[in-house]
Amino acid sequence: MATKFQRGTATSEICQVIRREILTLEIEPGAPLDETNLSNRFNVSRSPIREVLSRLSAEGLVETVPNRGAIVAPIDLKNFSNFIEALDLQQRYATRLAARFRTAADLIRLRELAAAYSAAVQDRDRFGILQSNYDFHKAIGEIGRNPYVARHYGQLLSEARRLLHIHIRFLEATQSEDKLADQHSDFIDAIEAQDVTAADQVAHEHTFQFHDRFLKALRYEADDEFSIEVAAGQLPRIPRKVAG
User: Fold this and answer.
1) Max alpha carbon distance in the chain (Å)?
2) Residues 231-244, mean pLDDT to the nearest whole number
3) Residue 70: helix, strand or coil by DSSP?
4) Full-model pTM
């Protein structure tokens, strides 16, 4: 039975559902987002669906392609090094500004967002981890009181969410989920101390920690030594091809 939305809430609620499915790769990169199919799925007119796609496009999660319409934005691994370079610069500068201009109220907000992230890690809530990590770093950008930096940093953070999901799945597969814990206390400490140099260093290290772990995730192959024993006369094991 189709979900019934209260008047005025359909757009936000549908946006949340589709955003979750895109970020957790339930809807794959490049998949079509047909307005008619979505309006049928959610039992709404095409008007709120257009607004949803517009919002997700602003987040960098949806693209419009000529003759194809809306699709889930591809994950551009070819330019990953360029992405990391841009993220490093923006993250360092945003965190430096936050250390300079933070207020007592800002610190309370950061601690609340860090606690939300820790709760998501504790609950093994993949989407919660993605969103709370995004919210924490986006807040750092806003604390710096430079709207241009905040906007550009936010765009990179939004794009990073699906990459972070791949990273999380890798940590789960290798039983390394503990590495997700306590990712934000060093940011808070440097910002609270208004130590611009420490803030810069923390941000830089955080970027390349993500960089290194993500590349490990891309190279990860489950259990190279796994084989299935077969009785005589049955099909032999086919050797796994190794990329050259």
Assistant:
1) 74
2) 44
3) strand
4) 0.82
CA-to-CA distance for 239 and 44, rounded, in angstroms?
A: 51
- DSSP lists the bridge partners of residue 71 as 32, 63
Domain locations in the chain as residue ranges: 10-72, 80-219
Name the residue type at position 123.
D
For the 10-72 domain, the top CATH level (class) is: mainly alpha
Contact 120, 150 (CB under 8 A): no
What CATH class does 80-219 carry? mainly alpha
Asked if 216 and 174 count as a contact pair (C-beta separation under 8 A), the reply is: no
Which single residue is written with the structure tokens 């190794």? 242
CA separation for the pair 45, 37 (Å, rounded): 11
Span 30-51, pLDDT tens digits: 999 999 999 999 999 999 999 9
Place of tokens 């990953």: 80
